[in-house]
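input
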Amino acid sequence: MIRAIWVCALIGGVCGLLSAFVTLKGWSLMGDALSHAVVPGVVIAYIVGLPFALGSFVSGLLAAGAMALIKAKSRLREDAVLGIVFTTFFAFGLLLISLYPSRVDLKSIVFGNVLGMASADIVQVVIISALALAILAVKWRDLLLFCFDQQQARAMGMSAGRLHTLLLTLLSATAVAALLTVGALLVVAMLITPGATAYLLTNRFSRMMGISAFLGVSTSAIGAYASYYANGSTGGCIVTLQTIVFLVCLVAAPQHGILAQRRQARKESRP
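output
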């Protein structure tokens, strides 16, 4: 249980940091797509005996490449492309699970099973998280400019294509790391909710990153701890707690909450 708590806190922190970029870029659907697209990679890795991180990472990159190719070669809107690709990958993963039911645990992939993670899986999660944190520490300013204004990034000599690929790679890797903790269905919540909550609390991106990471770490650790006493799903407890915090901030945030906006509207309406 102690191991589950610190693993969840680690993943929650990485997801929280990336969540700030996802929120700023408006990539909520992209996070959803990648979290589902890694499923067939995990299944294939388990079947052939490879590290799950390798298979799911390759699967996530293939999905991202497929999205980019279809978007470039067709008139379809981005949301339609995302929906087609991630449902196709997810369906293919479920098909593989049904063909090899004795080799793969469907429940652990879809819903997560942090208490049942092997030591080798935890090592993979720690390595992925450490690499993601190191890259973010070095490139967060470039990624910030890319998410905020691609044209300005190009004008300053940055490669928007490389930054786009880097952010997609980080999202894919983090989705892989979070897969066995909260499952494929709930990874997207950990990649969106902390950043959306932090967005309501501050106007500065550096502070938003800190708040988002703190929310990711604290809610993941507390949610994992609470799941022990509730005898419930660890991922379900974590995401439910994150949603509760978001709803509280949505209503009571000092500047961007519903109550604050109503007070401001009443002040502006007075003669």
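quick obs: The chain has a mean pLDDT of 82.
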